[in-house]
Specification:
heterotrimer, A alpha/beta (414), B mainly alpha (373), C alpha/beta (404), A: 414 residues, alpha/beta, GMP Synthetase, Chain A, domain 3, 2 domains, nine-stranded mixed sheet, four-stranded mixed sheet, 14 helices, elongated, C: 404 residues, 13 helices, 32% helix
Chain lengths: 414, 373, 404
Amino acid sequence: MLLAGIWRLTLGVWYKRLLGCILITTISLLLSGCWDRSELEERHFVLAVAIDRGDQGLGPEQGKDVPRVETFVQPHGDKRYRLSLQILDMMPSEKDAGGSKGEEVTYVISNTGESMFEMLRDMLGQSDQSLWFEHMQTIIISEAAARQGGLQPIIDLFRRQAEMRWLIKTLITPGEARPFLEYKLPSGEPSGIFLANSLQLYKKNTHVPTWRTDIGDLAKSIDNKSRVLMARIELVDNVVKIGGLGLFKKDKFVGYVDEYATQGGKFILGIEKSAIITAECPEHPGKIIAFELFRHNTKLTPHLDGENIYYTLDIAMRGNLGEIQCGRQHDTMDAGVIHKIEELVAEEVKRNVLYAVHANQNLQVDAIDFGAKLKAHQPLMWEKIKDRWEDEVFPNVSLLVSVNVVIENIGEHK
Amino acid sequence: MANLEAKTYMSTLQLMIVTITTCIGAQIMLSPRALIASLGQAAWISVIIGGVIFYIAACLMLKLGKQYPDETLVEYAPRLFGPLGGSVIVLWFNLLFFLQIIEIFSGVGKIITFFMFDRTPPEVVILGLLVVCTYCALQDWGTILRVQQFMFFVAYSMLTVVWLASMLNFQPENMLPLWTANGKNVISGGVSTWPMYSGYECVLLLLPLVYRQANFAKLAKIMGGAFGCMTLFFLMIIIIIIGVLTVENAKSIPYPALNVIRSVELPGTFIERLENYLLLTWIPVVFDTLAVMMFFMGQVCMRYYGYVDHRPWVLMLVPIVYVCSILLLDDQQVYDTISKYTLWAGLGFSFAVVPLSLILSWRQKRKAGARCG
Amino acid sequence: MAKKKILACMMLICLCMFTAGCWDRRELQERNFVLAVAIDTADAGMKPGVNPEQEPEVKRVETFVQPHGTKRYRLSLQLLKLGKNGDGKDKSKTYVISNTGDSMFEMARDMLGQSSKSLWFEHVQVIIISEAVLRQTGLGEILDFFKRDSEMRSRMRVYVTPGEARPFLEYIPPNKEAGGMYLSNMINLHVKNLHVPGKRTELASIIQYLDSNSNLVMNRIEMADKVVKLGGLVLFKKDKFIGYVDEYAVAGMKYIFGSEKSAIVTIPCPDHPDHQVIFELFRHDTRLRPHVDGDTIYFTLDINMYGNIGELQGDIELENTMDSQYVDKLESAFADEIKRTILYSMQISQNQMKVDILNLFASKLKAYEPDTWAKVKEQWEEIYPDIPLVISVNVSIRNIGSHR
């Protein structure tokens, strides 16, 4: 109030206007937040991250001196992990005519240590711009690193930092993880983006389990103390293949589950949009009949019979006849033949589903998350057994499957 | 600045809009974690129970206000409780707003610096928001009412639209089982949703402005409408949080609403990081809650000390609010203690002071009526 | 009248021609941009890929008959290719020429015999000196040419490497930038990276410290097999090379100087020491002050740090970061770790190397207690190893992250 009085009494109109202009200019300069800006050319885009065990994961043709130069004197802990980053080259060199395009679109830097964050910051000593993780697409973890200390030390940085996204895909590999970052695709796409996009095709490819295997879902599963799934990837001789599942129980790596069991798991959960189911013709052994699934209706419910828990699975599938290798011997226009094929396919689906459940039960890991269904529909029972679920109860749970297949079309030719 | 837009009357519909905009504020980001951590799957039931309980409290306040038309709490509290008691009540009333304001500022500062501007100190963010809210609080009621109405139709709808994008990731199964059999917990949880619903105490200040013709039944219906809207809004938030993240995950995340929106991937596009958009649409919502609460604090001080202008009081508040918000930034323990005290102060006011005043006013009126013959 | 006008016009034209200074022009295409300089000992730093039998020949051809002195140093320059590459196979934007001799200036001039354009030093980004050279001579001698010539920039970075310096000029960075620019941009990240000293290590500061007889500090760079890493510190006493200091001690020194903008502090979890928990620093207030108590001199260091929990590698069920008491425990554990780091670096600086780094403590004493400084400045080198440092650190964790 005193200031207001001074304002009114002592200053003339022009002074007030001048002061007002100065005030506006100062406020605009201060409030535009320019100190927090970071230009695009001053950042390095990190596209993918690979985590190996500390003594593995050296790049190709790297001498023995490299690990010592790459790393730093660590006050606490030991060199447990090797963190490698795939960085995008924003301005690749001029492509020579006839040479392979995009040979050098990305490059890899690496460091060893224990804490991911410390390794990251020390890697700034190998880089000329600051590293930016908001475009990271995939994390590839080697089995050796996961067996070493569990999953949580590896992924904590990625679930805690604000720069990381929820949708980062995770993959596990039996061998070393760094070669995936060095892998150069013929199309010139950086391998980090290639892997993430390939995993997006999970809807059509039943051998890939990527529904709910992003970092956010990993954090969710760990909080819920349930199993963690990751897609499995392998690299041999420049050939990369994604297929199968890696399973973690209580932060420990348990094992792999093959593609057939992954397919069965997806049928139970009802997350495939399209699938190919193959059956062997009973009359002509060795010849395969393939069914292409278009639509399905799946319902999995838990039931209680006293103290026994059993599940019922009802699947209704609709699709086309994809391929029949003994097609000349059968009259596929005949309804009876079609009906027999439908039954064959239903049997096959049943077998697949039971195979998947048994594979999980043998590993004592509830990969298909039967526990969540039990918790939702029979909460009282769940409260009683939730601590012993994966070790004791789940391996003894039985599944009653009933499948109904309808073949709508037989294709262009009979 | 002699062209302040004072307002002497407002309609009941405007009262409803003001209540909604005051109550739905920053707590939709700050409170869900604590609620889900203590109640688990049954959090949505507590939200509904809380809505009902606080609707009753608001109706009690309406009844009290109707006893003294043309007067706000500040004027009739000394008459009811005596001069000392009246001062205590007015101070308690003011403190409710103050504690909420500093909590909201400090929480907003933390969220914005963590998710949007890493290197900006939270003090700068709080200062910026404080300056804007003060500018709004310095206006008179007519302007503020217009701001509230505008925000209600623009900001809240944008916030709802962005929030509903998270339905893409909603898994209904995470909501089951719907009921975890512990009745007492649920009711105490309902009571603990007060921070989300708080702000309806403004009715005690605003009632004189509402048309005299509005009788109690109409006002109660309007309040019901307001609380219905609020309950629906909060339900939408809690249900989607539990459905997308599960209860266990939501317990471990400081601000689960932002993680929910982060998990959204708009199909077919590259657009991600929707939490930036959610925060952008959330800031106007916070702004109008804060500005109107600062205005109310100014009004209370003004009426208590017999001034005509609320503006010097608002200006005097600014440094106090700033310093107290900064102090809450550093230590989480201090923040938790202040939240606890705010909860008790709010519940005490709604369920002890207001019914007591109602009873006292009935007695006084009866005594006066008897004397008048 | 007309005569005067003509005379005036002619004078104007003459003046314009003389004052435009066109005889001093040097077009851009006629200059060779020198981007980086490497200084080795004369028998190191040969061109890579040269047949060992040919080496003495190459050396003889490169150099010149010197009137005075011996062949002590090898000076290599990285030159920028301005035009497009001829056949496109060679991806680098630069090439290297080299010479041996004693005087830097003489070598640089003689190298014109290997170049088609005159060498222009105004864009030199970085000077790399090998350790072998520094063991031979003091720094002042080597850098005299660079501090004296008017073409040199004062913002040149200076690095020291344990191995040979020339390979750094031959190095092609992965993003195909010109090598000198890449090497000098690396130091800009020193504000985020605790293991790189960075501040006050460019040529201007070095000259300033040489003039005021202070103890210098420089960055260390190392290379192995296409991996170039900047980290660690090189310590000098006045201008004599003493040794290297590891990254942990560099972190401590940066805390004392207060020159970090962001830092990572790692500690083992207080309850479960086989996992680590990490603190990310965002802001800090550091104050180093001398105090004199009668005859004793001691320093106090007060640090206030604000930041977030960066990473917690343990099982989050066991480490409950939502519990504010646990967070308090973490805060004091981090403060202890920072204290330990600082004490470690003080131990290296005082007991092992016996050098007052950048004369920081001396300058603080001179600034705040000038009378005491006047008394002790002759014996500062002897007194310094015994001066105690009282440290008080306060850490405040503002956020625990997106997930607990």
